[in-house]
Amino acid sequence: MSAEKLAVTPLKKVMVTISAGNRPAGREILNGNTVEFIFGLGKEGLTPLERSLAGKKVGDSVTLQIDRTAIPEFFGHVLMCPQILGSKLNRFYMNLKIHGVESASPREVVRAMAQTTSCGGGCTCGCDCD
Fold first, then answer.
1. Angle of CA points 54, 7, 3, to nearest 5°
2. Alpha-carbon 3 to chain mean position
3. Over 50: is that where the pLDDT of 123 sits?
4. Over 70: is that where the pLDDT of 52 sits?
């Protein structure tokens, strides 16, 4: 691979650090959780989270203001942070910093696709979607 940084595009594995709070640099709700996901696998297209990261590269940051009622749509299939869901704030800021973009292996893509079609987690159906 060349020294050029990969951009966040479909089927790339993206690693981001997320913090959230009641002000743009806040961390009262969430302080630097790192998450990893395969970009662009949603059943209904890109989530608002993915659209905010599209085309960005390692080192880029994004700060967004989000309404609590928009959380499920914003994250979609990508991730859910319990700290954000449990927040009492009606509106908060989320800070995303990209610290990794790499090509996903076919196995990782298939696994991520399977997870997006699972029953949603927390069940007893044996799908291992927790």
1. 170
2. 25
3. no
4. yes
